[in-house]
Amino acid sequence: MTPEKFRKDRYLRATGYNFYVWAVVNVLITWPLFAALADDPWPVWLAVLYPLGCILGGIFGAAVNDNRVYKMCGEPDPQPLVEAGGIWGPVFLVGIVFTVVLSLRGPVGYVQPVWLLLVGCAYLTWGNFGIREFQFLGYFLVAAGAVAGWFVRPSAASWMLPSRHALAIWVVCMGLVWIPFGVYLNRRYLYRAQA
Q1: How far apart are CA 33 and CA 133, in angstroms?
Q2: DSSP helix/strand/coil, 99
Q3: 37, 164 in Cβ contact below 8 A?
Q4: Distance between CA atoms of 152 and 43, rounded to whole angstroms?
Q5: Which of 80, 110, 148, 172 is the most buried (most CB within 10 A)?
Q6: How far is CA 46 from CA 41, 49, 52, 81, 109, in A?
Q7: Predicted confidence band of residue 193 (pLDDT cuts 50, 70, 90)
Q8: Backbone φ and ψ of 65, nearest 5°
């Protein structure tokens, strides 16, 4: 993948900035889960509305990033390298179904490992179409999901609680790692093409 092609792909060109946005969302979304582990659970209505608000904020931030990159790079090519919705649509559908089922029936501790595996598989697939770095990120997230799942120890007492280990792995892998990864993508593909 050349920087010029990256800058012209409507799905790829803002991904560096979007990694910053989703890193923040991925960390903030764990706040009610850590509160539940600390025996200070949020009211159910707030615990449901808060993640939705975080996701809507992430979508707004991604739209702002798309507009910023549009001003920097101009019109994208009409045909993207890959129709990313074909990858991400099924991932979000399956992830939401698993989240609802595990949240209602347990064990809740497997929610983060499942999402790590799904997002990792999506990046592995997307990486097969030219962005080698996405493959590396995909392998990393799949391995993190496997490790997070290994640490989940559901018991009668913790059946409806998140796993502290899985949450910590989530914060590191879907939060802290994404910021330098976004910086790398921007420097490697977005700004190098402008020089």
Answers
A1: 31
A2: helix
A3: yes
A4: 25
A5: 148
A6: 10, 5, 10, 40, 20
A7: low
A8: -65, -40
As a 3-state breakdown, the chain gives helix, strand, coil percent values, each rounded to 5, of 75, 0, 25
Whose tokens are 């280990």? That residue is 165
Q: What's the whole-model pTM score?
A: 0.92
Q: Which residues contact 28 (CB under 8 A, 6 or more apart)?
A: 54
**At CA 109, angle to CA 105 and CA 115, rounded to 5?**
95
Go through the chain and tell me how many residues it has.
195
16 with 183: CB under 8 angstroms? yes
What is the tally of helices (H) and strands (E) in the chain?
9, 0
Q: How far apart are CA 167 and CA 34, in angstroms?
A: 8
What's the CA gap between 141 and 125, in Å, rounded?
Answer: 13
Domain boundaries in the chain? 3-191
Query: Taking residues 173-184, what's their average pLDDT?
Result: 97
Q: What per-residue confidence (pLDDT) applies to 1?
A: 82
